[in-house]
Amino acid sequence: MDFRPLKQFLALSESLHFSRASLICHVSPSTLSRTIKQLEDQLGIALFERDNRSVSLTPEGKRFQVYAREALSQWDIIHNELMAGALELKGSLSMYCSVTASYSFLYDVLSQFRPKYPGIEIKLHTGDPEPAIQRVLTEQEDLAIAARPESLPTGLAFQQIAISPLVFIAPAASHLSGHLYRKQLSAEEFKGTPMILQEKGIARQRIDAWFQANNSKPEIYAQVAGNEAIVSMVSLGFGVGVVPEIVLNNSPLSDKISILNIQPELEPYDVGLCVLEKKLKNPLIDAFWTQLTEIL
Predict the structure, then answer these.
(1) Domains of the chain
(2) What is the rounded CA–CA span in Å between residue 288 and residue 270?
(3) Which of 14, 140, 188, 215 pairs with 53 at a CA distance of 20 to 30 A?
(4) Nearest to 230 by CA among 262, 204, 265
(5) 94: enclosing H helix or E strand
(6) What Å distances lie between residue 123 and 117, 140, 161, 171, CA to CA?
(7) pLDDT digits 0-9 by tens, 58-103
């Protein structure tokens, strides 16, 4: 069965850029354009709105995106179920995580998984951890390493890998107020101190709640997308940041950072692997999930 048109459609629907999508699919932009036109002709509707500057999904395109993801997911499940009885598992899994998570957790998992299932290819995508769960929910990825939210979305399975404290960090040598380094700190004592925080996500929610509970507001100097960028800016003396301790421990700049003593402490990160429960029917995904359970 030829699922290339669906895969090419999904690549374009996620990147909304013909050149990037064609690179992902290993086809020319003109080939991709023809594939999309053929799909639209077969369906009798426009899947994309496009002009010289932008590409966007039509309402019908968004509905077809859901169908395409589900169709490919169901094909993977039945294909691998039929193969599992007689042959070794073969195929690919897509996974999303931050750079820190990739070398903090994945090595131990993959070093045992690869020899056991040499026919399964892992396609790893890295980036800011904040959208990890959403990428699984929208089926852009099969699996993701992410921090567990306060409320786990319906239909999402989560398996804990580690717990990491959220820590306030300051430059080891700076012109910041000396009292920050000498005693236990409350939210009020950060008044006038420049803060470098995540734009959004679980860490930002907990930081905002911490200041609010203490009737205070952070003096925000910069808002960034990744934890590694926070460590970099703090090490250069731009202000105080908040990151998961595991990020700091794995940073080449850790010797240029001091951890501040705060009270009350922030709720730690519960880091784990997440997947849609329905995708655990896929033998490849179930094999990876089971392997993680055995390691832990």
Answers:
(1) 1-68 (1.10.10.10), 88-161+270-296 (3.40.190.10), 166-267 (3.40.190.10)
(2) 20
(3) 140
(4) 204
(5) strand 91-97
(6) 14, 12, 20, 36
(7) 999 999 999 998 888 888 777 767 766 656 778 889 999 988 888 8
Please write the tens of the pLDDT for every residue from 161-179: 999 999 999 998 766 666 6
Contact 271, 160 (CB under 8 A): yes
Q: With residue 156 as reference, give the H or E element that holds it.
A: strand 156-164
Q: For 130-139, 148-157, 183-192, 209-218, which range has the lowest pLDDT when averaged over its residues?
A: 183-192
Structure tokens at 139: 């089926």
Alpha helices in the chain (DSSP H): 4-15, 18-25, 29-43, 59-84, 99-104, 106-116, 132-137, 202-213, 227-235, 245-249, 283-295
Q: Residue for token digits 């899947």?
A: 47
CB 67 within 8 A of CB 266: no
